[in-house]
Amino acid sequence: MRMVKMLSALMVSGILLTGLPPNAPAQQGVTGYTVITAVELKKLQDSEKGSLLVDTLAFSRYKQEHIQGAKNFEFPNENMDRWDNSKTGGKSQEDFIGMLGGDKDRPIVFYCLDAK
CA nearest 18: which of 66, 42, 53, 46? Predict the structure, then answer.
């Protein structure tokens, strides 16, 4: 039941997907990523075992609720002109690169589910 609620919330807010193949549909005026629905995420999870799902909320929120298989890496809502460990849960840019791994072709999905 909780997964259905989460997927419904994601469907409304959209999900950011990077690392798409060149023929993937792009959003108007945006380059480098695509917003996908919860249904599209489910299809991706079912078909692409090598995809990476990243929950961007604080670790305390991630512990309370997250999509199964997601990794946590906190990012602020506001833009960061430079990397700031105090805004990423104390994690460094090197930590981020390490989490992403070496496979530059796998799809990466970032999501933020803050329904409260």
Answer: 53
Please answer whether residues 62 and 55 qualify as being in contact, where contact means their C-beta atoms are separated by less than 8 angstroms. yes
CB 54 within 8 A of CB 72: yes
SS3 category, 72 = strand
Q: Which residues contact 48 (CB under 8 A, 6 or more apart)?
A: 106, 107
d(CA 33, CA 68): 22
Query: What does pLDDT average to in each consecutive run of 10 residues of the chain (116 residues)?
Result: 40 44 48 82 80 92 91 90 93 94 87 68
- The three-state secondary structure class of 83 is coil
Neighbours of 10 (CB within 10 A): 23
Model pTM above 0.90 = no
